[in-house]
Amino acid sequence: MLQYAAIFFVIAIIAAVFGFGGIAAGAAAIAKVLFFIFLVIFLVTLLLGVVRRG
């Protein structure tokens, strides 16, 4: 999932360079959402790992 966020981030950067503002904003928004979903899943699995060991 983090890979998809990075891909959409790169698409947003490339679109911004070429001046496609709407496409860049859309790709950046998707990348941001995927990154936060990844972050939440990472924190949940980290907490579950700590709880199971303790």
From TrEMBL:
Keyword Cell membrane appears in the UniProt entry: yes
Domain of life: Bacteria
Membrane-traversing stretches: 7-27, 33-51
Entry keyword Cell membrane: yes
InterPro entries on file: DUF1328
One cellular component (GO) term of this entry: plasma membrane
Keyword vocabulary terms for this entry: Cell membrane, Membrane, Transmembrane, Transmembrane helix
Entry similarity comment: Belongs to the UPF0391 family.
Name of the protein: UPF0391 membrane protein SAMN05192542_103111
Species annotation: Paraburkholderia caballeronis
